[in-house]
Amino acid sequence: MQTINRKIRLTLAGSLLVTIFASGFVSSCSQLLGWGVILWNVENPTIPSGTLVPVYIKSNIDSVYVIGIPKEYQVKPEKNSDPIINKKEVPLWQIRFFSSKSKAQAYAKQFINYAPLYAETLQDGLPIRSDPDNNSRRVYKLRQGQIVKVLDKAQGNPPMSGSTPLPGDWLQVLTDDGTIGYCFSYRLRIFEIEAGKTVAVAQANTSNPENDPVLESALSKAWSPDWYKDMVDNQTIDLDTFTDQWGFFPSQDTGVIRIALPGFEKTYTYTAITRIDANSWRFEGSPLTITLRNETLLSVQYTLNDGTQKSSLFVNLPMPVSDIITQEQARRQKLLETILEQGPIFQSENYGRLSLAADGTFIWEGYDILVPRVIPSTVSGTGTIVMRLFIRESIRTTYDGALTMYFNPQGIDGQPGSAEPGKAMAVNFLYKVEPRALRLEYLPTSSLSGTMVLQRSASPIILYLPASEQ
Fold it and tell me: Checking CA distances to 136, which of 13, 192, 306, 439 falls within 20 to 30 Å?
């Protein structure tokens, strides 16, 4: 009997604790925890983004806030006897919480222009990044058609299509599962949601594409025209045609691909990438397909402006094009300095006085004997030396290299004229640096193929210019 009475007393005590706990919970719901600003429109009832709301409870277990529904958004009950619902659970990610009302009001004021703005993703796999920079960490991959909330505009470097920045802005965005990051607006459709309207969230049937590490690796590389590799391998860099302006420039971040080649440049947009086979992909919404021949060779099929199908090869070089250009410029400067060390003024009774400067400019006086067979009569005696030519090994036994002297055209009354690109006259010479002297041999254009000197002239014109004592 005593055992039964003891069980009854314990049961009554437990019931009392439950009642007290329940009373405490209800009481705590009336105590203000802080204030929040709605980031993503709340439904049932609809509370628009940007609305200031009181926050009563935060549950980390259920990942919700209990907020107060502002009177203007409270739903009138069907029966007068039914209570008005003035509180609601809202997912944590849908609210920006503040401990004070003044801070919440300040944020709401700052947020007012972005409150109605949402965006639809126009490209499958469009990334959201940790910072407003194309090289920052990817934190999310969007589905095509997925809706995100625009929170703010951010300062950052725009993604590039080759050397051209893409139009648009970096936006801070919020996804429908609470991820916040930065997305470039070029492949987003921005729209407004009116107060009282709900957000149509993209359905899960447009699922995230599978990760494709081979494709992502290929699209992350720099692709240059295939003839660049021959220049690098043979160490014959022609800076007139070796430039970072030409190549295949893909961008998963923007859904844009640019192809730039001599005489052709075109930008293509695509909506998704579909795998054709193990090493081939099609860019949906465009005529582009790519095939990865190996890790450093890519075949690209595309259409020209007249609709003609075209296929081009692109290579991934062992270092950035800009670095190779810098190295070539340094090589040329070193060759010029080797000549300058023996001068920099060279003078001959027959061929006049040649003065060289460290920046490659020159002044040549008294070269009349060379006109017009070597030097045109229409040029002035000023110009620039460019160490752009390469010679065959068979010629290296006689000469150190070859150079081009670009003579400025004559102006009015025979004075030096404009040195605009394309107007200077090129005269090519083989050269040999000798102790306190410079030997030049005129190279007719028939001796050259591009920037390569194939042979010496059958009837060479050789100039010997001793260094001047100034």
Answer: 192
